[in-house]
Amino acid sequence: MRKAVIDMGTNSTRLAVAELVDGQLQMIYTEVAETRLGEGMGAERLIRPVPLGRNVEAVQRFVKKAQELHAVSLRVTATSAVRDAGNQDEVQQAIEKVAGVPLEVLPGAVEARLSYLGASGDFAYLNRPLAVLDIGGGSTELVYPRPDGIHGASVNVGAVRLLEHPELCRNVRELLQGLQEDALPQDCALIAVGGTNTCLMAMELGLTHYDGSRIHGQTMAKERVDAWCETLMRMSQSQREQIPGMKAKRADIMPYGVLILQQAMELLHMPQVIISDKGLVYGLLLDA
Question: Is the pTM here over 0.85, yes or no?
Answer without folding.
Answer: yes
